[in-house]
Design brief:
Blueprint: E1 10-12, E2 34-38, E3 40-45, H1 58-67, E4 70-75, H2 86-99, E5 103-106, H3 122-125, H4 142-155, E6 159-161, E7 174-175, H5 178-183, E8 187-188, H6 191-207, E9 211-213, H7 219-230, E10 235-239, H8 241-245, H9 266-278, E11 283-284, H10 299-302, H11 313-322, H12 329-344, E12 352-362, E13 381-391, E14 394-398
Helix pairs in contact: 4-6, 6-7, 7-9
């Protein structure tokens, strides 16, 4: 039996109680106090439509987001067709209008087809996209990236970069570390990430555009961004929950541990946590990347890159970082809501999400709202259960009692 919650029984963290409509049948199985947070914002998700609806749809992806407390998300452009023109982008915008339960704002691709050979119609797409990104691929040409930065700056838009030097990959698929060497796997070196970040920061110092780095995973990346901020560059970055609490010693021979960038070394993970604490890392983003069961069933070598993360993001961070005293609850709210919204210009409005932080659960992918099931946290016991999420005054998710 659940317990009815009045506002006196709710801890409001980052939200004003008078602006919140509390569902009348909100229940808390532990009998403790419910926490109310501003709706979370994830600036890095893959909802797979158009082109790959067997992996995820706008409806299933947005429901998964709502179940994780997210009321605003930004969708990456590795789609079919790639949103590199207004006509291609319109296909995605129509799907958002038809199927999204929350605020979904797309990225426009930096280059045509994300091939890195020709710049997309940045000017035409600018009014409809949150920023420009070729996520999934790094822009290899210095000249191409410089021109993209100049045009984005003129349009008042940000460049959001997946940083990866193709010539340094050498067919790798997990971190080039102890696990790869011990098990005969091909490794991805850290330099493939941080050398392109270094290149981009040098370009920004000359061009001056707004710049955001996706899913950083190495200690060198943290150091480069820390120095760039001290130098006054307009740069921010994100990392994912899995990079903060796992490293390559956690790897198993299963596709649910394969993502790009890969889980790095213990030293990298510790540097990421340090960067989170000191403000070098501005926000947490999940890089929610669903695939079919078949695509994730081929081990570390053969499986597709990507794991899902919207429904486990807060529980992972709360369990491993907040409960252990590494960051405060208020800092967690900033990382999930205030900071990404401020950087990307997405106001929270009256969006709110309610959580029972005392309740624990065992991660069961079959219970996910997402069509994706691959998570490195499968079977782990975490604290924090989302009770309900409200977007624009409407309940978009409510946990079954």
């Amino acid at each position: 039996m659940g317990c009815l919650k009045s506002k006196k029984q709710i801890d409001f963290i980052g939200v004003t109680p008078s602006s919140v409509s509390v569902p009348t049948d909100l229940s808390c199985s532990t009998g403790g106090t419910v926490a109310a947070f501003p709706g979370f914002c994830d600036v890095h998700v893959h909802f797979r439509e158009p082109g790959f609806s067997y992996k995820e749809t706008m409806h299933s992806g947005s429901l998964s987001a709502a179940a994780g407390g997210f009321t605003s998300v930004c969708t990456m452009p590795n789609l079919k067709p790639v949103p590199d023109s207004v006509s291609n982008l319109k296909i995605q915008l129509d799907l958002i209008r038809e199927g999204a339960l929350i605020q979904v704002v797309p990225y426009g691709a930096i280059t045509v087809g994300e091939k890195g050979e020709e710049l997309s119609d940045l000017e035409g797409m600018a009014p409809f996209v949150i920023a420009f990104s070729d996520d999934g691929r790094g822009v290899q040409s210095d000249e191409m990236m410089a021109e993209a930065m100049k045009r984005a700056k003129a349009l008042g838009k940000m460049i959001v970069a997946h940083c990866e030097v193709n010539s340094l990959l050498h067919g790798g698929y997990i971190h080039d570390g102890e696990y790869a060497r011990a098990h005969g796997h091909k490794g991805i070196c850290s330099a493939s990430e941080y050398e392109q970040i270094r290149r981009d920061l040098e370009l920004i110092s000359k061009i001056g555009c707004s710049y955001h780095v996706c899913h950083i995973s190495t200690k060198e990346s943290v150091d480069l961004i820390r120095k760039a901020k001290k130098a006054g560059l307009d740069v921010t970055c994100e990392t994912g929950p899995h990079y903060l609490v796992m490293d390559d010693s956690c790897l198993q021979e299963h596709g649910r541990f394969k993502m790009n960038p890969p889980l790095r070394s213990r030293e990298d993970r510790e540097a990421l946590v340090e960067g989170l604490v000191d403000g070098t890392i501005d926000m947490i983003a999940t890089d929610h990347a669903p695939h079919s069961a078949e695509e994730k069933s081929k081990g570390l070598a053969g499986s597709a890159f990507g794991v899902v993360g919207l429904e486990t993001a807060l529980p992972v961070v709360y369990t491993h970082l907040v409960k252990k005293g590494i960051i405060t609850l208020e800092k967690m709210v900033d990382l999930f809501s205030s900071a990404p919204r401020a950087r990307f210009g997405l106001p929270v409005g009256e969006d709110v999400t309610f959580w029972d932080l005392d309740q624990s659960f065992c991660v069961d992918p079959e219970a996910f709202m997402s069509k994706g099931r691959a998570t490195p946290f499968e079977g782990e016991r975490l604290f924090g259960v989302c009770l309900a999420t409200v977007h624009n005054g409407q309940i978009v998710y409510k946990k079954e009692s």
